[in-house]
Amino acid sequence: MGYYDDPKIVGDYIDMAAGYDGRELVAALIKFLPAGSAVLELGMGPGVDLDLLSQRYQVTGSDASQVFLDRYREGNQAADLLLLDAETIQTDRRFAGIYSNKVRHHMSPEQLEASFLRQHAILLPQGIALHSFCLGDKEEFMHGLRFQYYPEDLLLSMVAPHFRILGSIRYAEFEANDSRI
Questions:
Q1: What is the DSSP letter of 6?
Q2: Is there a contact between 79 and 60 (Cβ–Cβ < 8 Å)?
Q3: pLDDT tens for each residue of 41-60
Q4: Beta strand pairing status for 170-171 and 179-180?
Q5: Beta-strand relationship, 123-134 and 179-180
Q6: CATH fold label, 3-180
Q7: Would the pTM count as exceeding 0.85?
């Protein structure tokens, strides 16, 4: 059983994350990806960013937690949702954009490399991937859940073999320059 397979933990996460969204990240994606494009959100959690993305794109939400998917579907019956692991991304569908907001920090460097390779395979030609990461150089575990903080140079070296980097910016989520897209 995964960490987010517990309905109480999912509820606690939703309460803790209230007031946070990826508005700044979606604004960055809009600069590169035309309206109406098909976008896959990896690790949608409660669906806050999915709602933002759906205002402009044909969006598919995904998560490895059926609990998150079920909770979101309660209020959004027509939502296009997939139960997907962010590493293996087992789908035959292809997308013009792939988006994630601080989901990759639960992955080891090896898992992240595998995810980038799989993302490249499901992106349409000229597709865009936009991800945010926690910057740092440490790994922590809380309740068995990994939190991997990546140094900027390592992230860029992992992305470069799979994607042409169109931009990379630092931003503050909790403190100055703690995050990167």
A1: S
A2: no
A3: 999 999 999 999 999 999 99
A4: antiparallel
A5: antiparallel
A6: Rossmann fold (3.40.50)
A7: yes
